[in-house]
Amino acid sequence: MHVPILESLRLEGPELFPSDPGTARILHALQSRCGQEHWTASTPLLRHLHIRSLGIPWEASLYQNLSVLDLRAPGMSPPTITRLLDILRQCPDLDSFALQTPTLTELSVSTTEAEWMVHLPRLRTFHLDGPPPGQIAEILEHLTLPPTTHYTLSTVDSPILPSQYPVLPADHSHFPALSSFRVIDFKQVGPGSILLQCSHITPDDPILTLAVGVSDIAAGLANLSSAIDVTAVESLSVSLQEGTEITFADWCATLCEFASLTTLHLVGATNNTIRSALGTLWTPLAHCPTSPSSPSPRSPTGSPARSLCGKLSELALSEVETPCRVSTDLLWLCDELYYMCGLDETAAEQAARELGLPPSYRNEETAFDNPSWNLYRYWLGDGKLYRRVETPADLHAALEELGFRPEVVPLADFSEAALSHLDVRNWARRLAYTVYHQAAQIPPMPQARF
């Protein structure tokens, strides 16, 4: 058979499941046969092949010279690893590849064999859904892809070693897109599953989307840097589900390689998780349990101690528990950062007075129990509100908008210096907004921003 002008072929069938009330309840067996000769047709111009819920033999001659290969038919018999690599090799101009299959078959092939290395210089999207982590990694190990490729990888199997992310190959040299990430979004989507999105510029355009099962969410977060180069990451968002705790040691392991981090966003975190994160941020790197080096906390010349995430300038909380002693942790964090920025104790105390803090601000219990400033540096509202506050009057209006009574906002305690977030000599200034209100508890807000 010869089909000389066919350029695009789309085969779609209904998805039938045993629980579907529309399925045939009496039917015991159904076998669909199509002669092999139907799939040996010559299709010299075929470039787009889409298959949904149907299947064609993996030996069919259609799998060549394609620019789009989209196979979403989990009911198809799984291909062998060598056959899949052979198909990809016969499509050197492939622009988009998607395969959904529960597994791949056949023994592994060696990456040292040049014949099994496949170069796809034009591939824009690579989507592999379903196989175990090791098989996904093995396919990737045999590919060389351009820096413009976007990856979507999904597996339902829980790896034995979740911290090692075995779905990704150990050697990233053939995948230039998997480096120099600027934005990472780590999201827990189930008791034992995570969705990881890594981007070069904005979170709206992820280069790597990874859905994987893990046996320990905290370990998956703590060992993120073991699989991905995070040294250039500037923004990290961590979304957790109820009941998940990230300990101080886990945060140290997570953040120790984030040397360029400027924004940290925690979503759904418990108070313990927040306090552990704050404690990690003001801990000198030398004192971190997983510290890669051991610098002196403070040199004799008074130079700043090296801290985790020393470039951090924005900390945001969303969907969190009602803060309790978190406010005190913020106090210590800010005070420690003044110290690490080279300011002596007198300068830190002067800054505290500038910000309207009581003289007893160093006393944890007094600070916690004192209703005059009970949420130290706690900023409420979204980013638009944050950027709008420039003067005491702006702050007064913002607090009213948030539901605070005007009479409990002593504006006289706020100076212009305290309200200026343009002075970024150290990021403590950028966090410096003291919110006074009538209750010891914060009203529920969709987002709290520091």
UniProtKB/TrEMBL annotation:
It comes from Lentinus tigrinus ALCF2SS1-6. This is F-box domain-containing protein.
